[in-house]
From TrEMBL:
Protein's name in the database: AKP13 protein
GO biological process: adrenergic receptor signaling pathway; positive regulation of canonical NF-kappaB signal transduction; regulation of Rho protein signal transduction
Entry-linked PANTHER family: A-KINASE ANCHOR PROTEIN 13 (PTHR13944:SF18), AGAP007712-PA (PTHR13944)
MF (Gene Ontology): MAP-kinase scaffold activity
Organism expressing this protein natively: Zosterops hypoxanthus
Length: 198
């Protein structure tokens, strides 16, 4: 969800030939958390070398694996719900930069920390695949970083042609937006959610 607001959720039941029945209703408040802040920061610093170099301090503190997995899931999910501009690109706004100019990218950031789900998300975005061949100032590409750090699954994701999305809650659903409405299909449960802005 990309907005701090109160929402009303209605649980409905329907049977063929019968009207839709509202079983229960409840309101709850979306709040802005660190994952959402991180996703917003990362989205705005795509291509900004000063900001991307600043993110490298996270690499020095090396959080425990469980924290990395939690961070990966939360930030990737927050990224999925950001309303990115149509022209947004993993490599930033300046597409005139040649591929052979060494620079830090969002893909380097995600791979350096071992963020599997965020890496997958970035691969699906404009500039995602192109970022794989860009060297940073140390001469490393995202692919070589994954190999150097022993991130087997991540390296597979970056190099295998038909690599599939990492398992996570977010893989269970598919959202279709149309104006003020969106429909989400939760494949695992066989449930459709209709959301309407009011």
């Amino acid at each position: 969800h990309d907005c701090c607001e109160t929402v009303k959720v209605a649980l409905c039941a329907s049977r063929e030939g019968h009207p839709v029945l509202v079983v229960a209703e409840e309101s709850f408040q979306f709040v802005q958390d660190e994952a959402y802040d991180a996703a917003q920061f990362l989205a705005t610093c795509a291509g900004n070398q000063q900001a991307l170099n600043f993110t490298r301090f996270l690499d020095r503190s090396r959080p425990p694996a469980a924290d990395v997995d939690f961070l990966d899931e939360k930030v990737a999910l927050a990224f999925r719900h950001l309303k990115l501009p149509a022209e947004w690109n993993v490599l930033g706004a300046d597409q005139s930069l040649a591929e052979n100019i060494p620079r830090e990218t969002l893909m380097h950031f995600a791979v350096r920390l071992g963020l599997l789900r965020l890496t997958w998300f970035l691969l699906q975005q404009p500039g995602g695949r192109g970022a794989l061949s860009i060297h940073n100032n140390e001469g490393a590409t995202p692919v070589s970083l994954a190999l150097e750090r022993g991130y087997q699954k991540l390296h597979q994701l970056l190099t295998e042609e038909g690599a599939r999305e990492p398992e996570s809650w977010s893989t269970l659903s598919h959202t279709v937006h149309s104006g003020d409405y969106s429909v989400k299909h939760h494949r695992g449960l066989g449930v459709y959610l209709l959301t309407a802005e009011a």
